[in-house]
Amino acid sequence: MLNYSKKAVFFDLDHTLWDFDRNAGEALSELYDIYGFNRYFGSTPVEHFISTYSTINQQLWGLYNTGKITKEVLRKRRFRETFQVLGADPDAFPEKFEEDYLAICPRKPHLFPHAIEVLEYLRPSYSLHLISNGFREACQMKIRHSGLEKYFQNIVISELVGVLKPHPAIFHHALAKAAVSETEAVMIGDNLEADVNGAMKVGIEAIFFNPNGLEIEPEGYLSIRSLDQLRDLL
Fold first, then answer.
1. Fewer beta carbons under 10 A from the terminal one: N or C of the chain?
2. Residue 171 shares a structural domain with residue 156
3. What is the top-level taxon of the source organism (predicted)?
């Protein structure tokens, strides 16, 4: 159980509430057919294209979260490197594909199971807030099109604050917006470094969302595999 009673619950967005893999997979599958990518990859199934992209995108986001690359570099590299890894000429990648992906993917509405019912359960007893390292325009679309907007008193986006999780400043900013102390808040997220360790370093208790059952021994934080387990903790 948590060590202190709480007044505010902070959630990460991507991979915690908003099902990034499902939404991105749908968007990429649609665009793969529209752009006829089979002419580049032959019999390579779309699922292999998606899984390759997902691995590269995750690696690049790790670099972005640690300040090693910019937003522009991340967006420029992720699909070109996917082409390269799959044996296609990266210069053949159509730039408009990225534009269409950015227009379609954030409008996908899929959330993790139990997300809405848990937010409904928490809302009467806690103030709810989002802290995301995602890009402003994409975050805003995801929140609006998935029906999340009405649940959160504050939406803290790193691009607007000027620092990324796990930097202490973004958590202090969120605490000030929520008007609570460190011990009165809890952070829930899927990223051990950005969400969990970042929160704990400023004195906020954390819950690791681990839907894939990664074999990690929790150290100083709680772990859940399904969002409905929050009912037992809050």
1. N
2. yes
3. Bacteria
